[in-house]
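Input for the complex:
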Amino acid sequence: MQKRTIRIFKFAAIAAVPITLFAFSTGPPIKRTGAPVDDGGRTCTACHTSFALNDGTGGSVAIIASPYQPGVKQTITVRVNHPTAIRFGFQLTARPTSDETKEAGTFAESDLVQVRCDPTGNAPCNGALEFAEHRQIATGAGQPGPRQFTIEWTPPATDVGPVVFYAAGNAANNSGSPSGDHIYNTKLIIPAATSIPRPAISDNGVLNGASFLTGCAPNGWLQIKGLNLNLNTRVWQESDFDGNKLPTQLDNTSVKISGKDAFVYYISPTQVNALAPAEDTVGPVSVQVTTNGVTSNIFSAQLQRLAPAFFLFKDNNIAATHSDNSILGAATLFPGASTPAKPGETITLYGSGFGPTNPGIPNGEIPTVSANLANTVTIRIGGVDVTPTFAGISARSAGLYQFNVRVPDSAADGDLPVVATLAGVSSPSGPTIRVQK
Ligand code: HEC
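Predicted:
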């Protein structure tokens, strides 16, 4: 009796609400992947308005795909995740980069994926733009992430040059409404496997990732300049990590230092940033980039035990923060966000290449505990030597050395030079912090 009452009530409620309201988790409207040529790049946030697009709360969407063999079917994966989400959806489209208003290849429907055509109807789309998206059953109501949607895609029959995929993902709260859901979007460009250009590292192309001068150290950042390093431009994101392990490739670009994996933070056509492995190898090393299975020239570099340098916000302004984590710098550096340091204040400076720590850093992992520098470091601020209250790597900060120091009481107003020295090796002179009484 009780059961029946509930069923009748539910039915009555559904009947009272316009049926279109219930049509969305069954598959969103087309042109919501963020592709700029589709109505200016709209995504799901047109209706799922609770949070900003790509909010920084730990979620992400990623597209995983290999170079395409013309006409040969392959699987594309769209991965959506958020720490608190328990229902997921997506939409994906493929375009030749030579003309993004055209479709590239065809998606196949499955039990979990449907394919919508522009302007209406479902696949086959006969050359019209295609949008692969979740079926309602695939949203997995109540199941935590990450959620991987796999889509069968048959590329164009001939090499049409690079193909770009656009995807939007919804990491939802299973409320049965558009509220409380996190929306992410991304894109991925893949080349035809038949025409992958060879990556090349430029002359003087390997530099310290903090100072942009020569000199790199184990567990220090490298900046690699070159050509054809990747078709995509991005930094690592949540989906690139395997638990605590740092990524050894982003979108099929990896870096080896004398045959050992470096950890890739940033890719673009002309620049890659990577963290050197944390170990004792020093001396001459070979640096090589591999993109989509094609290896670059070998670049010979010197790995030094210590190659200390401060990260820079821009020009010579050292990347530094106040104790409340706000940005340290002249008010004009990042208007509205940065403020100068005061004499006597404790600030944090960030750097790379400061060498071994105690305990040692686990190679290729996000450190779970903080570790002090093995060598004693002195930091000279405006000509006055200061001993940091902390010098080392904090927990959860891969490859990021940090120094908590007290700005000398005697510090004058202006841009004061800062130099760090340990075991007889100094950071380059030039970088400064702004002090204002
Ligand atoms: C035109 C408005 C609109 C757009 C655009 C839209 N949605 Fe929705 N979506 C809704 C509504 C309304 C609901 C709630 C009703 C339902 O579940 O069908 C919903 C619900 C959902 C749910 C279930 C949410 C939950 O917490 O239970 C998912 C998943 C979803 N949408 C995915 C997407 C994705 C992915 C996109 C973008 C590619 C998208 N939606 C774009 C209106 C929209």
